[in-house]
Write a structure and sequence with these properties.
mainly alpha, Four Helix Bundle (Hemerythrin (Met), subunit A), Helix Hairpins, flat
Length: 542
């Protein structure tokens, strides 16, 4: 990483200026501001979850030391952040150039929130307080969640500025989908949904452990209720914004079309178990409903381009994949039939029929070999050896095809993105619409900043190379007529011959009809066509 360059007449950066530049200035690309924002944001969320968990005595009592250690680490990080922001306050754009910048910073909203996040810990550690006051201080630690406002408020302002001329429904669509004018708020919204998906999945998995369920039954119920509320609200918002979705806006009933789309059905499946468990009066298998909530994992496919890429790969290579699957099925059925033929008399209970032998063939082909069914005859064992060796290659074919095609599709997507960049650079500058389209494609492909910079540089180099080639073609001089009059004559003769062939093929009348009288060369072209049509009218050759 290179230090920011300063002009010769500018003084070198002070220590606090460097701290602000490298740790808190998000516009400085080599800095670590984004990493610090993300790390502190996740630490805030984890610390709040830990504070909530402390209120469960069965969970807190045996692990009190670990909870205290995590609290110490969290407060330590927040304290260092608070002090660094205080020291670098004079270089913050909000306070730069103003007197008493650090004092102004101390009494600002964000600084007060940062102070409230760490103050209860120090008050409880260095002052003698009664039980009620300690309980209040423990609850006050939940105020740490307001530290997220440091990131949410600027993102909200950016979002409103980008969408100030759009309708309310358009703003909702921009919040839910990457549009090029969604801003950082859309990223935070996606992270919020993914957090609740992961948390609800973890709770469903842990809920199946009786010892854990006995301790955290109430917490699991709260998590499920909140997750259901979040997912239901998201589902309704997506239905509301469907008319602004480019995939549905031109359909007859965009909302109804969206309801029957794949993503909408997945969203509906994620909230149905809760509704069925709570509303239906009939007795249902609750274990089935709880496990069915794991379908929420499918919601994660919305937030990654990998599934879309895999879908494209399957559509593109379905014939090859189908052929390999057909070969596998043929081999399984043939092997199962031979296994039944060789082993039925020796093991009638295990190789009772061909369908039962298919299980053995699949297990052997997949090189799993559970051992519950195994041949005992020499021919059966020989067949097993051959089948196991063939299976290694047979099952590797689809995997290799998918891996190769997947890599190919990623390359094609990135080449398409680079082509869009090249087309956008044709006029020499990026319009607002082109910038929005590029930003939308960047979010859809989940490209990092380095990827975007690299592809942009490649597109710019390709555009410059194309311009150089065009300039070379347009400015190239075939010959100098003064220096080589004989070559100029031969070239003139060649051009006349070509014009004559063109006139004979198209006809003089057809060419004359195409001449535009507003063209400054119209009269000259008419004389040329007339001379070609009537060579006798041309002046005699000397």
């Amino acid at each position: 990483m290179n230090e920011p360059h300063t002009l010769p007449h500018e003084p070198p950066l002070t220590l606090w200026a460097r701290v602000h530049l490298w740790l808190f200035n998000t516009g400085f690309e080599p800095g670590h501001a984004r990493l610090i924002e993300n790390s502190v944001g996740w630490l805030i969320i984890l610390s709040v979850l830990a504070i909530v968990a402390e209120h469960n005595d069965l969970l807190y009592t045996p692990n009190a030391q670990w909870f205290h250690l995590f609290d110490v680490i969290t407060v330590g990080v927040f304290t260092v952040e608070y002090l660094l922001r205080l020291g670098a306050a004079p270089h913050d754009p909000e306070w730069a150039g103003k007197p008493f910048a650090r004092i102004r910073h101390v009494f600002s909203f964000y600084a007060l929130v940062d102070l409230i996040a760490i103050a209860p810990f120090y008050l409880a550690s260095y002052f003698t307080l009664d039980v009620e006051m300690l309980r209040v201080l423990r609850l006050l630690r939940l105020m740490r969640i307001f530290k997220l406002s440091r990131y949410m408020v600027p993102a909200w302002r950016e979002f409103m500025e980008l969408n100030q001329h759009r309708t309310q429904r358009g703003k909702v669509h921009a919040l839910l989908e990457p549009t090029g004018h969604s801003g950082q708020l859309h990223v935070y919204f996606d992270n919020f949904i993914m957090f609740w998906v992961l948390l609800s999945i973890i709770s469903v998995i842990l809920e199946s452990v009786e010892s854990v369920h006995a301790v955290l039954a109430t917490e699991f119920r709260i998590i499920d209720t909140v997750a259901f509320s979040v997912f239901t609200l998201e589902y309704l918002l997506r239905i509301y914004a469907a008319p602004d979705n480019p995939a549905f806006k031109h359909r007859f009933a965009p909302r109804w079309s969206y309801v029957w789309s794949g993503h909408a059905l997945v969203d509906l499946i994620t909230i149905l178990p809760f509704l069925l468990e709570a509303l239906l009066p009939v007795a249902l298998d609750l274990r089935f409903l709880r496990v069915f909530r794991l379908m929420r994992m499918l919601k994660l496919t919305r937030y990654t381009s990998a599934t879309k890429t895999l879908y494209k790969v399957v559509l593109r290579e379905w014939q090859v994949i189908l052929a390999s699957v057909f070969v596998m099925l043929l081999l399984v059925i043939l092997t199962a039939s031979l296994g039944y033929l060789f082993e039925h008399e020796a093991q009638p209970d295990k190789f009772e029929n061909i369908p039962q032998s298919i299980y053995w063939a699949v297990v052997t082909l997949a090189s799993v070999g559970y051992g519950d069914i195994s041949p005992i005859t020499p021919m059966g064992r020989a067949l097993t050896v051959v089948l196991a060796l063939i299976g290694i290659g047979i099952f590797a074919i689809p995997a290799g095809l998918l891996a190769s095609a997947f890599t190919d599709q990623l390359r094609m997507d990135r080449e398409a993105f680079k082509h869009k960049l090249l087309m956008s650079l044709e006029d020499g500058k990026l319009s607002t619409k082109e910038r929005a389209a590029i930003a939308e494609e960047t979010e859809r492909l989940h490209l990092s900043d380095d990827d975007v910079r690299r592809l942009t540089q490649e597109a710019r180099e390709a555009f410059e190379a194309k311009q150089r080639e065009e300039r070379h073609l347009t400015t190239a001089v075939v010959l100098d007529p003064k220096q080589h009059p004989e070559l100029a004559y031969h070239q003139l003769r060649l051009l006349v011959s070509q014009l004559d062939l063109l006139q004979q093929a198209a006809g003089p009348d057809q060419l004359a009809q195409q001449i535009d009288n507003r063209d400054p060369h119209a009269a000259r072209m008419q004389r040329v066509l007339q001379a070609l049509a009537d060579p006798a009218s041309s002046p005699p050759t000397p």
